[in-house]
Design brief:
Elements lengths: L2 H19 L15 E2 L62 E4 L4 E4 L9 E6 L5 E5 L3 E6 L2 E2 L11 E2 L6 E6 L3 H4 L1 E11 L2 E11 L4 E9 L10 E3 L5 E5 L7 H4 L11 E5 L21 E4 L3 E7 L6 E6 L5 E5 L36 E3 L8
Antiparallel strand pairs: 1-8, 2-3, 4-5, 5-6, 6-7, 9-10, 10-11, 11-12, 13-14, 14-15, 15-16, 17-18, 18-19, 19-20
Length: 374
């Protein structure tokens, strides 16, 4: 399946795209901060970072009651007390030098130079046919670089978003397969739905050379307390979307990746207008939500199409170890949290083997963790 060749090329491409950019930014530490704040997508204000899951004021206290709890069969705000031991104190990052640098790898020597500075928590980039580069900021902004210069003003016309540190905000970008003709740009984000809750959404706009116009929401999940998302178009012209599942918290929260009628911990498949494809694997099974394409994932930080085969791969962030790359197949279950090569943050291991429980084994996994890249 050209796994090794794809991974070699993907590794070099990821390093080249992410590192050669060196989009220097301020970042929020995972697990710290205050309750989530609504981002200011038109460029104003600073988003408040929340700990993973967006619950109460830190791991030590109980979550505040939420009036929407009655509407959902799972905790809408997770109780993180005792979920994670205290970690080491963060080491301050030294100032970034001017560069350029050359990094030696097993595959190639990569020249690294700075393209832009001053971008806050960048998450996705898209290269436009007019030479512009779009960059998402988790805080809920879309930035543009033209001729090597970062426009100081964020682009307008984005919908409201909620930003929570490392797990929620403005997410990914994808260009339509027929972008050269229609100039359509897709983006995923966390939409505020009231009572400090969010749902994963997909928006679409047309790039006119200066900004996105005709922006509209094409898909909104009906679940809350879900985490990061990635989007990519497959060779079949369908849009695939990851939705992260709770990785810590109460057992009933972590178990959601195995719930059929829940989009947490799933890969979704939709048409380019956000509508439901009639050939989705569970479309005729009322026990599943209809957009589910595959299930049993923790938090997927990467989604890519193999250029040789058209196969779709997802990079999954494990718990304490057990980061994975999975080959995505329609209707398959990838095991989280019933199987993982990682361990709980408090020490106990998860059951490791996937296949003997009927789950898909990862193509590759890492113990200890490497923070599986996008």
């Amino acid at each position: 399946m050209h796994h090794s060749r794809f991974f070699r090329i993907a590794s070099v491409a990821a390093v080249t795209a992410a590192v050669a950019f060196l989009l220097t930014s301020g970042s929020a530490a995972q697990g710290g901060g205050q309750a989530g704040a609504q981002a200011q997508p038109q460029g104003g204000g600073q988003g408040g970072a929340a700990r993973q899951g967006g619950g109460g004021p830190g791991f030590g206290g109980p979550p505040a009651p939420n009036p929407r709890q009655k509407d959902f069969p799972y905790p809408v705000v997770r109780d993180q007390r005792g979920c994670c031991p205290a970690g080491p104190r963060a080491i301050p990052s030294p100032p970034l030098a001017a560069g350029p640098w050359t990094w030696q790898t097993t595959e190639a020597n990569i020249k690294v130079s700075i393209v832009a500075r001053g971008i806050e928590h960048p998450y996705a980039i898209a290269f436009m046919d007019d030479g512009a580069i779009l960059v998402t900021e988790r805080i809920g902004r879309l930035r543009v670089i033209r001729n090597g210069v970062l426009d100081p003003m964020p682009l307008p016309n984005l919908p409201p978003m909620i930003y929570r540190g490392t797990e929620a905000g403005m997410m990914d970008l994808a260009l339509h397969p027929n972008y050269a003709q229609n100039h359509l740009v897709y983006f995923s984000y966390h939409k505020p739905i009231g009572d400090n809750l969010t749902s994963n959404a997909v928006g679409r706009g047309r790039w006119d050379g200066k900004q996105l116009v005709d922006v509209k929401e094409i898909f909104l999940s009906d679940d809350v307390d879900t985490e990061v998302s990635r989007i990519v178009f497959g060779r079949d012209g369908m849009l695939y979307m990851t939705i992260g599942s709770p990785g810590t918290g109460q057992p009933e929260a972590v178990a959601r990746a195995q719930h059929k009628n829940d989009y947490a911990g799933k890969i979704l498949r939709m048409r380019d207008d956000g509508s439901l494809p009639p050939d989705n694997p569970f479309v005729n099974d009322k026990s599943y939500k209809p957009y589910v394409y595959a299930m049993g994932f923790r938090n997927q930080l990467g989604l890519a199409v193999n250029p040789f085969t058209g196969d779709i791969y997802a990079g999954e962030q494990g718990p304490n170890g057990g980061d994975e790359v999975n080959l995505i197949r329609a209707g398959k279950n990838y095991g989280w949290p019933l199987a993982s090569y990682g361990r709980d943050y408090n020490g106990p291991r998860f059951p490791a083997s996937h296949a003997d429980k009927g789950f898909e084994e990862p193509v590759v996994y890492w113990v200890p963790a490497i923070a599986c890249p996008a």
